[in-house]
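task queued by scheduler; priority normal; single chain, no ligands, no partner chains; default sampling; output format set to structure tokens
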Amino acid sequence: MTETLRAPRESPVAPAPPPSARPTVYALVGAAAAFASAALIWLSRSWEPTIQYVSQLGATGMPTAPVFNTALLLLAVAAVLVDRAATASRTTYVAGWPVAFTLLICGMCFGLASVVTCSRGCPVPFTPGALPQDTIHIAAAVLGFVLAIVAMGQVALLRRRPWMRATSLVILVAVGVTAFAGAMIALFRGDTGLGGNLEFTAATLAIVWFGVFALQIAGDERASRERDEVLTASSMSSRGDR
């Protein structure tokens, strides 16, 4: 009796699950929220050009308060969405610790500052006329701003993204210089109009950075998806040739 030898059948390879579109959606919506936030802040400033400092636009009783606090809330949403995009992305964004963690705490701070506004005039905490809400608002806003700068520094240290590293470094230096100059002008009671413009400029640069970083995450996701498509096509072609 003869035995027929048969070549073993190749077990079918299950196709890899399609990559999730969530990181891209989070990133794009976050970018839109950041850019909208910057636009609303400058819209508020155009209505009250005499206002010297950013938080005064959202103070109790100010006609610009609803629009400004909406802008601040949009910034919080942008930070959290970029955090979600970075967490869900297949690309790693870690410099010391995850950039996403910094963005999450930053977004929570801005969210708190958008809800707990300062009193009229935004007096400095622990000075005559200052209320507890002033301390909460200013502490949250300042901490959020500092964490935004920390996140910029983290991204500036990331490898394999020279364009984003350079952009983050340039914005980081610009924000630091303008914020420091504005603080010195206020400290030495110089031109308050110039100091206010510098503060608004620093805030705008920081907000725009969120949008730029979000677009970078969306771009990284698209590049990863294209690589996967090329590898899948190459794998299927090699199996078909056998």
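post-processing summary
- Residues 1-17 have pLDDT under 50 and may be disordered.
- The helical segments are 22-47, 65-88, 99-115, 132-156, 162-187, 192-241.
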